[in-house]
Amino acid sequence: MPDFVSEHSQLCRFCGAALSHTFIDLGMSPLCESYVPAERLDHMEPFYPLHVYVCGQCFLVQLGEYVSPESIFGEYAYFSSYSDSWVEHARQYAEKMIRLYGLGPRSLVVETASNDGYLLQHFVAKGIPVLGIEPAANVAKVALDRGIATEVKFFAERTARDLLEKHGPADLLLGNNVLAQVPDLNDFVAGMKILLGANGVMTMEFPHLLRLIEGNQFDTIYHEHFSYFSFLTAERIFDAHGITLFDVEELPTHGGSLRIYGRHHENRSLPVSGRVAEMRSREIAEGYTRLEHYSSFSDETKRRLLEFLIGARRAGKRIAGYGAPGKGNTLLNYCGIRTDFIEFTVDRNPYKQGKFLPGTHIPIRHPDRIREARPDYLFILPWNFKDEIMKQSAYIREWGGRFVVPIPSVTVYP
Ligand SMILES: [Zn+2]
After folding, report:
1. How far, in Å, CA of 204 to CA of 180, rounded?
2. pLDDT number for residue 4
3. Do 405 and 411 form a contact (C-beta atoms < 8 A)?
4. Residue 406 Cα, ligand 1 centroid: separation in angstroms?
5. In terms of Cα–Cα distance, which of 62, 36, 35 is closest to 49?
6. Omega of the bond prior to 408 within 30 degrees of 0, cis?
7. Is pTM beyond 0.85 here?
8. Ligand 1 center from residue 285 Cα (angstroms)
9. Would you call 345 helix, strand, or coil by DSSP?
10. Are 347 and 290 contacting, i.e. CB atoms less than 8 angstroms apart?
């Protein structure tokens, strides 16, 4: 059983200040990747608080520590290769990095939380040596089977020292959507400082807190995501560990992400781009250095969504889900949406098919089930992939089916 940590011990993951300001409190929720197999449907399920704080000292938005990281990441069901647009995003990234920094057969590209190798494969294809570091053994195995060098490890300061000795320094050190999932931020970033070569470049991508607040993306909050970053906070954290952020890009992925570029303080060969100062001033102007900015969340989205679903069911409409992402589980549990509203959902990931969503116990089927069931509405849970999904599932229009997207507020697409 995961260890429960008392609320009295909540301290900021970066600066250690006591946490007392609530950002969002989404009540109790199960771990969003704990899909339930049929034989465990009658068993009890652990629920943990989804209470997010903002640090009054450094403005890091963060989940209180409720569950031990080991119980979250032991067997992770998310295989990145099951999303076409995400694999394409990775390919474009690899090409850009190779072009910008002249990576070749004598370089080393290291990725933390390398998942099933969906990204590193694009460097391997160009003959560039890679090393993946992935804590989930079942996911790492998929990468190894594809011939992508991978170490099954939690990345941290100590791991970084071992890896440096064994593989040498990284010319490109990257981590996409890992920073949010790091339980000990300082230990992780200290490790990046160690493994990054003297002239190396570090890039990281993470959902931008500014877009989360702007777009009401509260469903991107779940137990696996410990921290939520503005550029200002990210800059402060890396700076404390001797890494200068010299560039920043805004990306459309995951509802709006930042890609930050870092290098050692001492490495002056890479000048700081004007985009860094621009991003800083934009966040300051929008209030990210003032505590009151962090208390804008309201329950209105939940009420509107439930109104829509109740109306649809009253009118005899049938609703099926699309996708079984972590964010879907936060949304469904927070709103109390179960099979009374959504009959089933579908997912392309065979690992999830045949299982049930945590907490709500909505069954997960193969996407072919949509054609058989002919639902009136297809409720898109991974709204960040809505364009891709509406294109793939356009055939529901044959029987008058329509798409429903819940965030930023419930919208029906014909
Ligand atoms: Zn803090």
Report:
1. 11
2. 47
3. yes
4. 32
5. 62
6. yes
7. yes
8. 21
9. strand
10. no
